[in-house]
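Work Package 4 report. The design task specified in the project plan requires that, given a folded chain encoded as structure tokens, an amino acid be chosen for each position. We show below one input record used in the internal validation round.
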């Protein structure tokens, strides 16, 4: 990490500390009013699937989830059922998980290892590079050129230890261009490609994906919704924020920073006294903790505006890199993971499910996003900008 990056981080932490002393926080210029239909309207949801997920790269896996050739992973994206495969040359490819014969779901397992994908319906088979290998009883099927019947490929790129996909065949992918020079440099500085995804889980919730994403950019709810967990550790409604275009980051002070409220910390590093949150647009929250990362990803359901899938990942240094024996390392992350699950299931999800029910009221009236909810404003701005675009067609 360069000294500029370190100085910059320390300055942002000091800005958060000053907010804490002054009982202030970063703010946007104006309050925004919004309608419940943003979270319930099927037409808006369809536009988001096409113009957000079908247009820009989103994270679909950590590279360590497909570590070796022949590893695969299934992922339901908003527009396509997707199969990721690790290639012989070390790259990753993404395909629509659908047999080109009569459209059976080619691979049913969530993840695993395959040298060949073999269709359960009439046993056509495909190589991991997507090419059609066998047409069973081919002479009876007729004259077909297998080269035109490979799996449909989706744009896929591996960068900063993540696999990114644009959920539309024929689209371009350029992750660096989407991230912009600042977020690209921030992620490059973390060395995420050298870490391991030690736990991951998907949660299908009856909640619009933006309601879900909003909750994980929100520093205003902590002491109220999490009084006995996060609220004890992290300060509420105090943020030093940076707008990075279609992305952002912010530091929030931990309660342990209180010892420096009166006393000048001087030049000492304050990194252990904050959590640093990154919003990697359009749908991911990356939390940097002192010794690991947590990635939260949100995707709309492929049809319903009121359902979504959240994925949570714990991304950590290997036992060897951390200088820990395997048993200690496993126990540490298992404990950490259980705490995270517990907070999600008992504190966040119930509130969010009930929010979605509330938003279904036909006379909901307008609601308000406060000036203090800075990251939520930026999320909303990015999605609105993308949704205002023009839909491209799928080229397959
Ligand atoms: S649908 Fe796959 S082989 Fe027939
Ligand atoms: Fe929360």
């Amino acid at each position: 990490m360069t000294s500029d990056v370190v100085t910059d981080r320390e300055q942002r932490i000091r800005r958060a500390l000053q907010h804490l002393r002054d009982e202030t926080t970063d703010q946007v210029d104006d309050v925004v009013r919004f309608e419940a239909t943003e979270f319930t309207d099927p037409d808006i949801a369809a536009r988001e699937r096409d113009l957000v997920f079908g247009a820009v790269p989103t994270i679909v896996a950590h590279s360590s989830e497909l570590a070796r050739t022949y590893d695969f992973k299934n992922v339901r994206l908003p527009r396509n059922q997707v199969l990721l495969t690790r290639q012989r040359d070390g790259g990753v490819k993404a395909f629509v998980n659908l047999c080109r014969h009569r459209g059976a779901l080619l691979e049913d397992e969530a993840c695993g290892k395959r040298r060949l994908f073999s269709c359960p319906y009439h046993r056509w088979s495909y190589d991991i590079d997507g090419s059609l290998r066998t047409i069973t009883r081919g002479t009876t099927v007729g004259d077909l050129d297998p080269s035109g019947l490979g799996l449909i490929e989706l744009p896929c790129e591996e960068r900063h230890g993540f696999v990114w996909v644009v959920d539309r065949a024929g689209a371009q992918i350029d992750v660096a261009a989407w991230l912009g020079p600042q977020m690209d440099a921030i992620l490059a500085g973390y060395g995420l490609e050298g870490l391991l995804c030690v736990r991951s889980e998907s949660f299908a919730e009856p909640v619009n994906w933006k309601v879900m994403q909003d909750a994980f950019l929100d520093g205003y709810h902590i002491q109220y919704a999490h009084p006995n967990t996060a609220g004890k550790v992290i300060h509420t409604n105090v943020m030093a924020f940076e707008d990075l275009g279609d992305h952002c980051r912010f530091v929030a002070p931990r309660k342990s920073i209180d010892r420096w409220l009166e006393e000048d910390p001087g030049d000492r590093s304050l990194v252990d006294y904050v959590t640093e949150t990154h919003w990697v647009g359009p749908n991911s929250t990356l939390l940097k903790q002192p010794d690991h990362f947590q990635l939260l990803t949100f995707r709309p359901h492929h049809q319903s505006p009121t359902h979504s899938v959240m994925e949570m990942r714990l991304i950590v240094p290997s036992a060897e890199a951390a200088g820990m024996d395997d048993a200690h390392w496993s126990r540490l992350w298992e404990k950490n993971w259980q705490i995270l699950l517990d907070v999600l299931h008992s504190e966040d999800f119930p509130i969010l499910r009930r929010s979605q029910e509330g938003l279904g009221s036909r006379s909901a009236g307008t609601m308000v996003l406060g000036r203090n909810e800075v990251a939520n404003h930026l999320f909303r701005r990015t999605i609105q900008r993308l949704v205002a675009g023009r839909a491209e067609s799928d080229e397959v």
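Residues 210 and 380 are 9 Å apart (CA to CA). Validation will be extended to a larger panel in the next phase.
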